[in-house]
Design goal:
247 residues; alpha/beta; three-stranded mixed sheet; 42% helix
Amino acid sequence: MWKRSLQILPLAVVLATATLFAGTQMTASQTTAAIENKLHNAQIYTHGEVHVTYANGVATLTGTVNNLAAKRAAVRAARKVKGVTQVVDNIRIYAVNVTPQLILEHARKYVVTYYAYTIFDNVNLELRGNTLTVSGEVTQPFKKYDLGKILTDVNGVDKVVNDIKVLPVSPFDDRHRLQIAHAIYGDPYFIYYADQAIPPIHIIVDNGHVTLTGVVATKMDRQVAMMQARSTGLSFSVTDHLRVEHS
């Protein structure tokens, strides 16, 4: 009899546990409220208005937010709720009083204030509709990832295409970058440029091939910059992509 009781006990424990979990299963309205709470904690409602419906494990999000980062954050927040097996994202991007010019200005500000953006990187921005394409060159893979991510915070952008090229890792190129930077910004002729918070002449080195890009004030400044870049004698080629301001 004692042995038989030991055999029955595990089954009783299993049944009791199953009953406990069944009792804590949330209703559809409770799950909807939990999703809304997650959205609130993720500060989604500071970016717009998102509505939630839930049925049979599927959460559907509708409404509008002002940027792509908020849209993605809303989907991530909904997925974290117990019982949600699928999230249908029908959120639209809508920003009030945002023109294409403002979008590009804000995107440029995000780029130039990025802590790892230097004179050895170059980023170009193009806006078509609400799609922002970012291209150019950076010296490290993490910069490409970071820039693609932070540009999703720009209001009015519903898609970011990241076409940035990561330059090859090369000690020779690194040394070359520093020598050209010293030749240009160490020249008293360019002291006005060197003193700027964001020096406008960017030096892109790709396997010994140099491209100068950015903006200078005059044609003479462009010519002197090219001459200084060639003076190091290490380049396989030096290409001039500098723009003259207001030209």
